[in-house]
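As a representative case, we now present a protein record of this kind.
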Amino acid sequence: VTTAKITLDLQGTQLAPIWIVGSDRNNRPIITRPDSRQNLLNIGERRPTRFLAMQDLELAGGSVVIRFYDCANVWLDRCELHHGQHGGITVNSRNTDHIYITRNHLHHFLSGTGEGMYLGANHGKVVMQYSVIAENHVHDCGGEQGDGIELKQGSYNNWLVANHIHDTQYPCLIAYGTAGKGVNVIERNVCYRSGDNVIQVQGEAIVRNNLIMAARGAGFAS
């Protein structure tokens, strides 16, 4: 585990983010759970979590592999998440902002609801804002739903860029509207082999320069 790094916020106050980092990228530490009665890892459940970075870890099992609660300025990078019964990452319990999910490998969520990432909650009850979902590899999502990346109604000003998503039961990438708030940008994603539409967007988004292939439904639905 690396030591904390010192940064400065806009007011000049010193901050010491917590860094949890595997010491050897080629031989990641593995965190597992033997059953699905609880999530593997809850972040920000009891108290707010701010300025946390996790890198180069392998996380396997549990109901959901990682659930983010009251979180802001949290970075998940270069981790492998797999075989959670109900999915890889859920961010649907509290409002979140400035969440960075980058360069992770999420795969084999084939039971339960089965989403790779579930961001925000139904009907805008919980929203994600000003966050970046970039350069993740998401595949083999099934179960009752099986979306690759799902951005829920009301979440806004998010950037979904350069993700590689394939072999999903429902859309590889689905985004709902923002309820009149800032638009989401969806670009440079490679999406294919969906059992439904490949990319599905309700509206209030900029969708550009994506590669869409091999749909059982439509390539792009709006």
Notes: Residues 134 and 161 are 5 Å apart (CA to CA). Confidence is low (pLDDT under 50) at residues 1-10. The longest strand covers residues 49-55.
